[in-house]
Amino acid sequence: MKPGPKPKPPAVKKAQGSFQPSRGGDLVEISALSDLPERPDWLTTAGEEVWIDDIARVTVGSLVTARDSTVFATYCNLMGAIIETWRSGEVPPAAHLSEARKMAEQFGIFGRKSRLVSDPGADKTNPFARNGFQARK
Q1: In whole angstroms, what is the distance from residue 51 CA to residue 75 CA?
Q2: DSSP label at 136?
Q3: Is-above-0.85 flag for pTM?
């Protein structure tokens, strides 16, 4: 059986007119912060290539700011080393691939879904209330 379609972000659902607070009403899309990461001087050549490729993706609608410059540069160096390993015809260590994936997920590089978080202050509504179901007390 094939998996179903991926859920759409709340902003897209609101624009389409299909947003229901009982389904995803507690999700909030994280907006981009204004200060850009600063490129450190210790980036490798391969790391600089990754920095140039990914900086546009992480500055628009993600969590990377100037405070995250060192960690983002570490990610760029790690990805650069992985790319160099692939280009040399070898397979990079699985631990490096796994860590690069985790870091990319932290920076919101994997698409809009990775930048959605639950809103702890949202009202807990009962989606079955319209059918006459009352929550037990």
Answers
A1: 9
A2: -
A3: no
Locate 109 and state its tokens.
């590089």
Element (H, E) at 15: helix 10-16
List, in order, residues 6 or more apart from 23 with CB less than 8 Å away. Answer: 127
Digit-coded pLDDT (tens) for 20-74 = 877 777 777 665 445 778 899 999 999 999 999 888 877 765 567 788 889 999 9
Q: Are 62 and 108 in contact (CB under 8 A)?
A: yes
One-character DSSP codes across 47-96: HHHHHHHHHHHHHSSSS--GGGHHHHHHHHHHHHHHHHHHHTTPPPPHHH
